[in-house]
UniProtKB/TrEMBL annotation:
GO CC annotations, alphabetized: cytosol
Cofactor(s), by name: Zn(2+)
Protein name (Swiss-Prot/TrEMBL): alcohol dehydrogenase
SUPFAM superfamilies, sorted: GroES-like (SSF50129), NAD(P)-binding Rossmann-fold domains (SSF51735)
Complex formation: Homodimer.
Name of the gene: LOC101497153
Family classification: Belongs to the zinc-containing alcohol dehydrogenase family. Class-III subfamily.
Length: 377
């Protein structure tokens, strides 16, 4: 494409969700040109995250194109974009970094006021959609919508990477793996010799385990009732696994019993507000810290006895592990390339784009960690 030409509408294949829990349908979609401060990306690889599954199963906005863990190549840029050019390799991110709002400049938060969580299925810049099928608008998801051969994102929701980085691997850093590592490092600041308990041994929980192991935690206890997940947990740093179904007493009491009063750090990676209370109860008095990473599908409100906090426990929430995407993701990519962190082992399945419904079924059945979906070249 001539860099001086004006980008035109692209027609391509996308997996469109028309209703809650309905199989995705391969549709011919029209993808509008990028507007001011936007870029259009040819998606190379994208992985399925549990939040995609949860939103698909709920009564969310439809029709919609899901997907947010992705890597690709810039196809065209909109007016005002100076950071990217055609041909650049990029990671997409579901929260952006405008670099100029109060949180972005504070150094205290990664929740950008301008490019924070997208909740309405529309572009940040003008509250419209860039997708349509036969003239009918199709909505975005998490500011990315990577289950499409081409997508449009705000330039603040993409991170440039070296062309030597394997795009089919690092797409996992767009969400799950980065979120888990950041929760252990940035949010909890796990200390050497500490005891850690992790509720939920999916990709996020096992990434917390990797982060805790690299920080020198002495015990990393994984809690999950899926035997398939428990089998491989030790390969990611988990030192022991607890199945709640094997005990009569509440699992929080079990954890307190085997840790002499509770863990130093507990992480809720399930997306269950009752589990947040259990995680709080499982960490110790005085300095016990609980970090919640999961996004609940139902019952968003939580309750906990005030005494848990009166005795010194702390509860913290985190989005994307506290990472500022543009500022921090390049260093994570570098750590991967230097073999300081592991990503490949989280990929349990690789599927072509036209088998995307199989990926959803594998995750529904608890048979995968991350399934990477490869787009046609």
């Amino acid at each position: 494409m001539d860099s001086s030409s004006t980008p035109q509408v692209i027609t391509c294949k996308a997996a469109v969700a028309w209703g809650a829990g309905e199989a995705l349908v391969m549709e011919e979609v029209e993808v509008s040109p990028p507007q001011s401060l936007e870029i259009r990306i040819k998606v190379v690889s994208t992985s399925l995250c549990r939040s995609d599954l949860s939103a698909w199963q709920s009564h969310a906005i439809f029709p919609r194109i899901f997907g947010h863990e992705a890597s690709g190549i810039v196809e065209s840029v909109g007016l005002g974009v100076t950071e990217f050019k055609e041909g650049d390799h990029v990671l997409t991110v579901f929260i952006g970094e405008c670099m100029s709002c109060r949180p972005c400049k504070s150094g205290k938060s990664n929740v950008c006021q301008v490019l924070g969580l997208e909740r309405k299925g529309l572009m940040h810049s003008d509250q419209t959609t860039r997708f349509s099928v036969k003239g009918k608008p199709v909505y975005h998801y998490c500011a990315v919508s990577s289950f499409s051969e081409y997508t449009v994102v705000h330039s603040g929701c993409a991170v440039k990477v070296s062309p030597h980085v394997p795009l089919e691997k690092i797409c996992l850093l767009s969400c799950g793996v980065a979120a888990g590592l950041g929760a252990a490092w940035n949010v909890a600041d796990v200390s050497k010799g500490s005891t850690v308990v992790i509720f939920g041994l999916g990709t996020v929980g096992l990434s917390v385990a990797q982060g805790a192991k690299l920080r020198g935690a002495s015990r990393i206890i994984g809690v999950d009732n899926n035997p398939k997940k428990c089998e491989n947990a030790k390969a990611f740093g988990v030192t022991e696994v607890v199945d709640p179904n094997s005990y009569i007493e509440p699992i929080a009491q079990v954890i307190k019993s085997i840790t002499d009063g509770g863990a130093d750090f507990s992480f809720e990676c399930v997306g269950d507000t009752d589990m947040i209370t259990t995680a709080l109860q499982s960490c110790c008095d005085g300095w016990g810290l609980t970090v919640t990473l999961g996004v609940p599908k139902v019952k968003p409100e939580m309750s906990a006895h005030y005494g848990l906090f009166l005795t010194g426990r702390t509860l913290k929430g985190t989005l994307f592990g506290g990472w500022k995407p543009k500022s921090d993701l390049p260093s994570l990519v570098e750590k991967y390339m230097n073999k300081e962190i592991h990503i490949d082992d989280y990929i349990t399945h690789n599927l072509p784009f036209d088998e995307i419904n199989k990926a959803f079924n594998l995750m529904k059945e608890g048979k995968c960690l991350r399934c990477v979906i490869h787009m046609p070249r």
